[in-house]
Amino acid sequence: MKFTKMQGIGNDYVYVNCLEETVENPGEVARKVSDRHFGIGSDGLILIKPSLEADFEMDMYNSDGSQGAMCGNGIRCVAKYVYDYGLTDKDEISIATKSGIKYVKLQVENGKVKTVRVDMGAPILNAGLIPIVSENPQVINEAITAGGREYRMTGVSMGNPHAVVYIDDVKGLDIEKIGPLFETHPCFPDRVNTEFSRVLDDHTVEMRVWERGAGETLACGTGACAVAVASILNGYVVKDQPVTIKLLGGDLEIFWDQQKNTVFMTGPAEVVFDGEIKL
Questions:
Q1: Which of 79, 168, 191, 233 has the most Cβ atoms closer than 10 angstroms to its Cβ?
Q2: Which CATH entry fits the domain spanning 2-120+267-276: 1.10.150.320, 3.10.310.10, 1.10.8.60, 3.40.50.11060?
Q3: Positions of the site: Could be important to modulate the pK values of the two catalytic cysteine residues (predicted)?
Q4: Which is it for the CA torsion 81, 86, 92, 98, positive or negative?
């Protein structure tokens, strides 16, 4: 199987051009290629497929083999791949995902994509649709107990469920311990991605993320969008202006256009290397 390893601010996936390759049992393949000791090493597998409803389709799998609906860093890399590898010459394209069609705009420098702006769509705030078990229609600054400690969370779906939790010390957090307690908490019927966040100023928030099915990753694009939305809902940052989200792998710029009720994410995408692997 021919593949390309790519990363968006450290969130790395193995990408396969399924216009040319066929991948059987993608969940099993995702587990194999993601292994950082016996495989290629990645946060998962993303298949680039033809689409009848968009320019391309993105089909993603986490490192544990489970299928994901959407990946913000992944979709930027898909956009870079299809342009840089000659599958399209357009700088505005549509990509079908399990959470709907996303529209992306490419910033091209010297014939290569440098950054990508993604229209991530409207944030879902209805608790039942995220889904989060709650007595409230929206989960904003709601109490949750995990590991014997009470936290305050805000729930947002960007095509996948997120719980944004604000804490005082992001860098010193024992995320390997607390992350799984949130992921498998009974109030999240489909598990959850958890963003442990700290507001730096009214335009900047830092975060670490525990992703369902993958553990801690260096970055999560949908998670960064969720943090920006949650920070605006809680009044921590200025609305109607871009918010810089600082992740372990780098920064993303998030803008929630509340008039149009859509979230724009802008960030880089990079090729790490091309290769072949025998499955």
A1: 79
A2: 3.10.310.10
A3: 162, 211
A4: negative
